[in-house]
Amino acid sequence: MQKAKLMLNDAIQYYHDLLTPQFAAEMDGVMRRRLKEETLYFGSRPLCVVLRPHFYTERNWQFVKVGLESVLKAFETLHYALLKDRDLRAQLYLDPYEEELVHIDNPEVPPWTSSRLDTFFLQDEGILKIVEYNAETPAGIGYGDILADVFDELEVLKRFSKKYNVRQIRSLHSLSDALIAGYRAWGGKQEKPQIAILDWGHVPTLNEHVITAKHLEKLGFPTIMGDPRALDYRNGHLYNGSFRIDMIYKRVLYSELIKVMGMENPIVRAMRDRNVYITNSISAKMLAKKASLALLSDEQNQHLFSAEEKQAIDQFIPWTRVIEERKTTYDGKEVDLIEFVAENRERFTLKPNDDYGGSGVMLGWQSSAGAWESKLKHALETPHVVQEKVQVVERDFPMWINGTVDISMRYVDADPYIFNGTTVDGVLTRLSPQALLNVTAGGGSVVPTVVISKKD
Q1: Distance CA 60, CA 89 (A)
Q2: Same domain, 84 and 228
Q3: Which of 96, 119, 124, 299 has the largest CB neighbor count within 10 A?
Q4: H/E element holding 59?
Q5: pTM value?
């Protein structure tokens, strides 16, 4: 581990040393021009503002891949237990529409084609903790592949690769393979199914949908981007105008779809009749609840899991509980949950059970006692979870700003992509000057992820 740490630190220092002021200014200009050409923007903000990818050693990347694939078995066990047990589902605080629709899925068909585990990974210490499971609509896959292309063109990475082996991690092919495999497992018969990427017409991630659509079209799959409000269900098929939809790559959230269009919208009707394949399916929404991590780590559910699954849960899932009046265990001791969380805010984070983009998250160690107490009272009224503080990762990254190379610390997360609910292939890496990392929340940056090793 110490040898890998030294190699990684040496590689970062070498890369930064390459960025003399004149060269850094040139690289920044090239990068920003290419970002514009590829429309790699989140709304009006460039997706990346730093000049270095995030590095993994080969050993550390394999640790992430193998470790997370082991804990995915526990998530799968939980998913199928939830389908069978209404009382267990009650721990998730599902909305009424979710409880109604979860049963329309075919339990023989995996509910996920793509998902994402949001983690913090301390490479030097070999500590990896999952803080959320984005099991419904994971974003960023298309962005990551094109960002990798942009950095491959930068002269600084070419010079760096003369001393180090460089392997970019891309995921679009894994996504398309998973989409088609899911369609076949569902029973789809079309050799080249017609695909609709569905989201609202105003979201800032539409440029990523364009990237994905172009990729699918290159593979020979007719693909459109559509707003759910433009769809029509007739004669046993879902249509966008004259375009017949065999398969939906869903990026709109189910909660927003139902809120805006109700339960009798064309998409839900086609789903009920099994006349369109939609992914991720409605039952995948169960594990997208923040409470899914609470179900995994709570002592009252340990009977569901094998010894190997419990070992993976202990290693990768931080202590998490649904906020409610009850006794539970913490560090092997029984505690009153609400009283304990109230008195130890510096140890914990409070999160809404069903929200995204960092909305409603409160970091106890950055909050006053009064604000924490108020948030805790709210959490008793509206489903929330409390999660033990996870050590965040800090790394220096270079940025060309104000006529100079600024090398500053940024918080870094590691959000590996999961395909078919079983396989890790690719990762979203986000940077932020703040401990709450989320591009949607503003101020963040996305960088490509590179696996490196020193050349002989």
Answers
A1: 35
A2: yes
A3: 119
A4: helix 58-84
A5: 0.94
Q: Which of 388, 414, 436 is the last residue of a domain?
A: 388
Number of domains in the chain: 2
Place of tokens 């108020």: 374
With the C-alpha atoms ordered 8, 146, 19, 412, is the resulting torsion angle positive or negative? Answer: negative
Does the residue 299 lie in any domain? no
What sections of 289-438 are H helices per DSSP? Answer: 291-297, 307-316, 337-343, 369-381
Q: Which residue segment(s) compose the domain that 265 sits in?
A: 2-161+171-288+393-454
Q: Are residues 273 and 383 in the same domain?
A: no
Same domain, 242 and 366: no
Do 406 and 350 share a structural domain?
no
Q: Which residue has the tokens 């960092």?
A: 358
Alpha-carbon span 35 to 58, nearest angstrom: 28
Contacts of 12 (CB under 8 A, 6+ apart): 52, 55, 395, 396
Question: Do the domain assignments include residue 211?
Answer: yes
Last residue of a domain, one of 369, 388, 407: 388
Note whether residue 280 is domain-resident.
Answer: yes
Domain check: are 89 and 178 in the same one? yes
Task: Let me know: does 254 contact 226? Beta carbons within 8 Å.
Answer: no
CATH label of the domain that carries residue 184: 3.40.50.1760
pLDDT at 442: 42
- DSSP secondary-structure letter at 194? -
User: Are β-strands 333-336 and 247-250 bridged in parallel, bridged antiparallel, or unpaired?
Assistant: unpaired
43 backbone φψ class: left, alpha, beta (φ>0; ψ -120 to 50):
left
Q: How many CB atoms lie within 10 A of CB 158?
A: 12
Say if 231 falls within a structural domain. Answer: yes
Whether residues 363 and 405 share a domain: the answer is no
**pLDDT digit string, tens, across residues 276-292:** 999 999 999 999 999 99
- 398's enclosing H/E stretch is strand 393-401
| Size of the chain, expressed as the number of residues it contains | 456
The values of phi and psi at residue 168, to 5°, are: -70, 145
Asked if 53 and 112 sit in the same domain, the reply is yes
Strand partners, 118: 132
- 315-373 pLDDT tens trace: 999 999 999 999 999 999 999 999 999 999 999 999 999 987 677 899 999 999 999 99
The dihedral sign for the CA sequence 48, 52, 58, 63: negative
C-alpha closest to that of 427 among 68, 39, 51: 68
Distance CA 159, CA 167 (A): 14
Taking CA atoms, 432 is separated from 128, 436, 440, 442, 445, in Å, by 19, 8, 12, 9, 6
